[in-house]
Structures are given as structure tokens and as C-alpha cells.
């Protein structure tokens, strides 16, 4: 998967930055499901229909890099990883709730 490269960051408006941050087929469903609490990758695979493990891992990595989620790795066998929303991610959930309500108006 190609890595996103932002061009001329100084000229991007905050809306462009926000849209670029959440763009990706699975990013919004991942964030939405994380609102229920910490999640392990296998839980995402069960909860989000048709997501591929490789793509899920890439999207999780991008979301973590953008500061929306935090990853905690446990030093045990088998390896255990959990993801939680950061404060910035929780603010995004608030926006997604508003967007969800707006979407209901379109139905």
C-alpha cells in the first residue's frame, strides 16, 4: 500500500488535513468500534465485515501514527496487543456521532 505523502502542508486547510487523516475504507469503522473500549485486532476482524487482516493492520498503524489511537503490547506468549482511543480519537468520535445524526436526515 502506498504511503500517503502530504504536499505543501502549509497550504492545506484544517478540513483537508482532517479528511486526509480519516480517509481509508476502514478507518472510520475502526474508530467507531473502538468507542466501546479497548480492542484487540481479532475483535476488529469479528466486528467489521469483510476487512482483511493485512489491511486492518495497515489502517491501525496509520491511525496510531496520526495519534488517534494508542497501542499497548504485552510481553507474553502468545503476543497480545490492545488498542485504545486517545483524547484526540475521542474527540473524533464526537464528530462521528454528529455525522451519524446528519446521515439519518438523508435516509
Fold and architecture overview:
The chain has 5 helices and 2 strands; from the N terminus they run ααααββα. It is globular. The mean pLDDT is 88. By secondary structure, it is mainly alpha-helical.
Write the layout of secondary structure elements.
Blueprint: H1 14-22, H2 27-34, H3 41-47, H4 53-65, E1 69-74, E2 80-85, H5 87-106
Antiparallel strand pairs: 1-2
The proportion of strand residues reads 5-15%
Helical content (DSSP H or I, runs of 4+): 40-55%
The biggest sheet, with number of strands, parallel, antiparallel or mixed sense and barrel status, is: 2 strands, antiparallel
The span between the termini is 34 Å
Q: Based on helices, strands and strand pairing, what is the structural class? A: mainly alpha
Detail the poorly predicted runs: none
Average residue pLDDT: 88
> In order across it, which strands form the biggest sheet?
1-2
Count of DSSP-assigned helices:
5
Summarize the structure.
It contains five helices and two strands; from the N terminus they run H-H-H-H-E-E-H.
Features:
107 residues; two-stranded antiparallel ribbon
Amino acid at each position: 500500500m502506498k504511503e500517503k505523502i502530504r504536499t505543501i502542508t502549509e497550504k492545506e486547510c484544517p478540513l483537508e488535513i482532517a479528511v486526509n487523516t480519516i480517509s481509508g475504507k476502514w478507518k472510520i469503522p475502526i474508530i467507531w468500534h473502538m468507542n466501546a473500549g479497548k480492542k484487540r485486532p481479532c475483535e476488529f476482524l469479528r466486528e467489521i465485515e469483510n476487512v482483511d487482516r493485512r489491511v486492518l493492520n495497515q489502517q491501525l498503524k496509520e491511525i496510531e501514527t496520526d495519534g488517534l489511537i494508542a497501542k499497548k503490547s504485552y510481553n507474553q506468549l502468545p503476543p497480545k496487543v490492545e488498542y485504545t482511543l486517545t483524547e484526540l480519537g475521542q474527540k473524533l468520535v464526537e464528530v462521528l456521532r454528529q455525522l451519524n445524526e446528519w446521515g439519518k436526515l438523508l435516509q
